What we know:
The complex is a heterodimer of chains A (196) and B (251).
Chain A: E1 2-5, H1 13-21, E2 26-29, H2 32-37, E3 40-43, H3 49-59, H4 62-66, E4 72-75, H5 77-81, E5 85-86, E6 91-92, E7 100-103, E8 114-119, E9 121-122, E10 136-141, E11 143-146, E12 152-158, E13 160-168, E14 171-174, H6 182-194
Parallel strand pairs in A: 1-2, 1-3, 3-4, 4-14, 5-7
Antiparallel strand pairs in A: 5-6, 7-11, 8-10, 9-12, 11-13, 12-13, 13-14
Chain B: E1 5-13, E2 16-17, H1 32-42, E3 47-51, H2 58-72, E4 77-80, H3 86-94, E5 99-102, H4 104-108, H5 111-120, E6 125-134, E7 137-142, E8 147-152, H6 153-163, E9 167-172, H7 184-193, E10 198-201, H8 207-217, E11 221-224, H9 226-229, H10 235-244
Helix pairs in contact in B: 1-2, 7-8
Amino acid sequence: MIGIVNYGAGNIFSLTAALERLALNYGMVNTEADLATYSHIIIPGVGHAGAAMEKLKHTGLIPAIKALNKPVLGICVGMQLITEHSEEGDAPLLDIVPLKTRKFDKLLNIKIPHMGWNAVNHKNNSLFEGVEENAQFYFVHSYFIEYNPTFDIASANYGLKFSAAVQKDNFYGVQFHPEKSGKAGEQILKNFSNLS
Amino acid sequence: MLSKRIIPCLDVKDGRTVKGVNFVDLRDAGDPVELAAQYAEQGADELVFLDITATHERRKTMIEMVKSVARQLNIPFTIGGGITEIADAEALLNAGADKISINSAAVRNPQLIEELAKAFGVQFVVLAVDTKHIDGKNMVHLNGGRLITELETEVWIKQAENLGAGEILLTSMDHDGTKAGFDCGLLGSVNQMINIPIIASGGAGSMDHFTEVFQKANVDAALAASVFHYGEILIPDLKRELKRNKIPVRI
């Protein structure tokens, strides 16, 4: 059963709706004890990474989250939180994956936010099992995680090559919104629930 | 690469879709949830619901509809119509809407754009602008084109971008309903001026019109209502045609 970290960073209605459509059971994580009751943990998040980090701090859950050894999936800002630092609010983050979250530069001749469907190039990773190569996912973000060959399990191009998904041990992150990415996104959520 | 988006727009009154929709296999053409799911299945990239309900019961009905849509739909959607304050937007966000679009409330109170962007992020705030060509200028109109304002369209859009609008939905009232094609000239010049996505609206009549607006104005998305609702253009055919013309789309 999936536990969703409930720290008040954005709306989770769409995420829970997607899990319900897929008949995946879920509950909310409010306390450290809750973390132990679920087999998989999702860290959602929209909005400002620095502000989201502050909210997460207030839950007091950070040491327990960092110590988890069950599958954890950060979505969008939730993915950025597992990195080391964000340029958004110059904020130190969870530092689970040693990567930096940076701001898209309009000098690259791109519009910001990066909003819409973008092709994703994924490596052979169980999170992407059954997902077609270059399948498109729905992105909405102004900050991105730098591409890194070690932790990257999927990349996308928007002005530059950036990380669409990362993994370090049991910690996964996706920059796109699987709950809004049609069938491909639903496959990601299903795959995550099957990770052991 | 980022795909160009195709967005059907649905008018909603009292929680029901209005304007004739004649998909043959729809059980209930007035059910926004079923219609939305059908469009998602066909390959629509996003949906816009425009609430045209006038009664004070509006908000409650709309929230219920938004929840039902969010439960069923696996693509993003925007809600517009009657949003005048932060509380309206927050209720829609919590009900599962991905974005809200504001129009006349922003003209009356431009600070609303800034407040919404601060509260929910720029990605949540779509500014809808209805424009008409008057005496050599593009002027912002309200009430579906019936009421002229003193705002020049280009000036207003630039101001809105600076205030924190995350996307512009630009409808040419001169082209709307004509089925003679989008206003590529105006859309192109506005697009040059801003660094946020722009959705073209008004005038779609054929698949060529979509190709044209992406090629000439390089807009990020194109919105239409009747050509989709009446089945005159089927989204899978449109996507194939755009791809054939080397326009990046999601198929």
